[in-house]
Design a protein that fits this description.
The chain is built from 13 helices and no strands. Helix 6 packs antiparallel against helix 7 and helix 9 packs across helix 10. The protein is mainly α and 291 residues long. It has helices at 2-15, 18-24, 29-51, 59-85, 88-95, 98-109, 116-132, 140-163, 169-194, 204-229, 234-240, 244-256, 264-290. The chain has one domain (2-290).
C-alpha cells in the first residue's frame, strides 16, 4: 500500500506539468490530445518490440481497455480546450472537480451504495477550490469545458478501476493508448469541424514538447496511476489529484506570469483540499485495518 501511494504522488507531480504543456504547445486541444495518444501508443509498441513478447488478450478485453483510452482522449480534449479558452489556472482548478463526480458516479457504475463520507470529503474540496479561484464570468467557456473534462476524468478512473486488475500494466497501457488513438481518430472529423485548424502538423518546437508530454506525462504517468489503482480506491486517486491544480498554478505563475496572488483565501483553500485528502487516506487505512 505504501508503494502504491508513492507511485500515486510521483504521478501527481508529473501531472502538474500537463497543463503547462497545453499552454506551450500551439496546436489546438483536439490535435494535442490526438498526438499525445499517438506518440504514447508508438512508445508502448516500441517497448513490446524491444521486450520481444506481446501478451495475447481477447478482442472483448481489447475493446474494454480501448474504451478507457477513448474516455481519456475526450477528457484531454476538454481539459486542453478549457486552458485554451481561459488559462492554465482555470483548466486545472475545474479538473479538481473529478473527485466530486467520482463520488456521485461511482455508486452508479460500480453498483455500490452512495458514500456520505465521500460526498462530504469531495464537498470539502469544492469549498477549497472556490476559495482558491473565484470563477470569473469572463472565463465561462473555459469553465464549462473544464467541468465536462472533470466528468470524463472521473469516468475514466472508475472504468479503469473495474478492469485494470485483470491485466499487467504494460499490456493495459498498450491497448489503452492505441485503442484511444483509434477511437479519437474516428471522432476527429467532428471535433475539427467544431474547432477548425489551418494545419494538422505540429511545428518543430511543438513536436519536442509533444514527445516529452508523451514519454513522461503520459506513458510514465498513467503507468503509475494504473499500478496505484490496483491497490488504492478510485475515489482516493481522484481526491489525491485535487492537489494537481496547486502544483500547476505555481508553475503557471512562474512560467507564464499569470499573476495569481496568494491571498488568505488561497491558503484556506489549500488547507481544505489537503485536509480532504488526509481524511480520505486515514479512512482508507482504517478500512484496510478492519479487513
Amino acid at each position: 500500500m505504501k508503494q502504491a501511494y508513492i507511485k500515486l504522488h510521483i504521478a501527481l507531480i508529473l501531472a502538474g506539468f500537463t497543463g503547462i504543456f497545453g499552454k506551450l504547445i500551439t496546436l489546438n486541444a483536439a490535435l494535442i490530445s490526438w498526438y499525445r495518444l499517438f506518440f504514447s501508443a508508438i512508445i508502448m509498441l516500441l517497448f513490446f518490440a524491444f521486450k520481444g513478447k506481446f501478451v495475447a488478450i481477447k478482442n472483448s478485453s481489447k475493446l474494454k481497455i480501448s474504451f478507457t483510452g477513448l474516455l481519456l482522449g475526450i477528457h484531454w480534449i476538454l481539459f486542453y480546450g478549457s486552458i485554451k479558452y481561459s488559462n492554465v489556472s482555470v483548466g486545472v482548478v475545474c479538473f479538481a472537480l473529478s473527485g466530486f463526480f467520482n463520488a456521485i458516479l461511482g455508486p452508479v457504475i460500480n453498483r455500490r451504495k452512495l458514500s456520505v463520507q465521500e460526498l462530504l470529503l469531495s464537498s470539502l474540496t469544492l469549498c477549497g477550490i472556490g476559495l482558491i479561484f473565484g470563477m470569473d464570468a469572463s472565463y465561462r467557456t473555459g469553465i464549462v469545458l473544464g467541468v465536462f473534462s472533470s466528468i470524463f476524468s472521473a469516468l475514466y478512473t472508475l472504468y479503469s478501476e473495474c478492469i485494470v486488475n485483470d491485466y499487467d500494466s504494460p499490456t493495459f497501457m498498450l491497448w489503452q493508448m492505441s485503442g484511444g488513438c483509434i477511437g479519437l481518430t474516428a471522432l476527429m472529423p467532428l471535433v475539427l469541424w467544431v474547432w477548425p485548424v489551418k494545419s494538422l502538423l505540429p511545428s518543430a518546437a511543438d513536436l519536442e514538447w509533444l514527445l516529452i508530454l508523451a514519454v513522461f506525462c503520459t506513458v510514465l504517468l498513467y503507468f503509475l496511476i494504473n499500478n496505484a489503482l490496483k491497490k488504492i480506491p478510485s475515489f482516493t486517486v481522484s481526491l489525491t489529484f485535487n492537489l494537481e491544480p496547486l502544483y500547476t498554478i505555481l508553475l503557471a505563475v512562474v512560467i507564464f506570469k499569470e499573476g495569481r496572488e496568494f491571498t488568505a483565501g488561497f491558503y484556506c483553500g489549500l488547507i481544505l483540499i489537503v485536509s480532504s485528502l488526509l481524511f480520505q487516506m486515514y479512512r482508507v487505512k482504517r478500512l484496510n485495518a478492519r479487513n
